[in-house]
Design a protein that fits this description.
Pfam families: ABC_tran. The longest helix has 18 residues. The protein has one domain: 3-Layer(aba) Sandwich (Rossmann fold). The protein is about 35% helix and about 25% strand. Strand 1 and strand 2 form a beta hairpin. It starts with a strand and ends with a strand. The chain binds adenosine-5'-diphosphate (2 copies). The site of one adenosine-5'-diphosphate has 12 residues, from strand 2 and helix 1.
Length: about 220
């Protein structure tokens, strides 16, 4: 599904050069649930941004469904991000003055050929999947952290992406809510065959996924 070949990422500031990723080779297969672990600063977020087509590697190739990402135009890349990838962040990134339903509909607004009615139906279906269909007209401030993350997951799912990229999705939640979100992700993976790549610091959570990829200092260690 996503293949990284010889990925290197160098961050250059006026005084320092950081090798954030060093010759990373990995393949994420369809239907997998993979965790990425490693100490702070080892390159996890950089890796997720490159997989999410938010940032370009300094060297190496990202291949999405068999096609090198460099062969796409900027316009095509934006469409790929919008249509094939779903993002979940530690801090939810919901829009506070939009209702739950409007937040979830948002990714579909930029797509051609989807009517308002279909948008609504698909958003309701996504909210149903995360168990939040009783909260559609609430605003984010009226929800618990766990519920907010469920909305964010529904927003990631609504476009039926090939892959969900989650950057510490339970990092802001207490252990009970964190476990609920983890169980939800496991259900989405097992029941719907959703491919998930998750950065986490939580070893217990990582052990529940199919594969753990460990990083240290920009390199994969397993
Ligand atoms: P992690 O997510 O594992 O904490 P990051 O991918 O955020 O690690 O960072 C990897 C390394 O790259 C770190 O040394 C970090 O300081 C550096 N880095 C990350 N982003 C930038 C940036 N925009 N400019 C310069 N250095 C960066
Ligand atoms: P943190 O883990 O520090 O809370 P987040 O998980 O919220 O950070 O965000 C991870 C990275 O993704 C950040 O570098 C942020 O700038 C970027 N980011 C956050 N939201 C979006 C978005 N909607 N689209 C693109 N990039 C985003």
């Amino acid at each position: 599904m996503i293949q990284l070949t010889d990925i290197e990422k160098v961050y250059q500031t006026s005084t320092v050069e950081t090798l954030a990723l060093n010759r990373v080779n990995l393949t994420i297969n369809r239907g997998e649930f993979v965790s990425i672990m490693g100490p702070s600063g080892c390159g996890k977020s950089t890796l997720l941004s490159i997989m999410g087509l938010l940032d370009e590697p300094t060297h190496g190739t990202v291949t999405l469904s068999g096609r090198a990402v460099t062969s796409y135009s900027d316009r095509e890349l934006a469409d790929l991000r919008n249509q094939r990838l779903g993002f979940v962040f530690q801090s939810y990134h919901l829009i506070n003055d939009l209702s739950v339903l409007d937040n979830v509909e948002l990714p579909l607004l930029y797509r051609k050929g989807i009517s308002g009615k279909e948008r609504r139906q698909r958003a309701l279906a996504a909210l149903d999947k995360v168990g939040l269909n009783a909260r559609t007209s609430h605003f984010p401030s009226q929800l618990s952290g766990g519920q907010r993350q469920r909305v964010a997951i529904a927003r990631a799912l609504v476009g039926q992406p090939d892959i969900i990229l989650a950057d510490e999705p339970t990092g802001n939640l207490d252990s009970v809510m964190g476990e609920e979100i983890m169980d939800l992700l496991l259900t989405l993976n097992r029941r719907d065959n959703t491919t998930i790549v998750m950065v986490t610091h939580d070893e217990q959570q990582a052990l529940k996924t199919e594969r753990i990829i460990r990083f240290f200092d920009g390199s994969q260690v397993n």
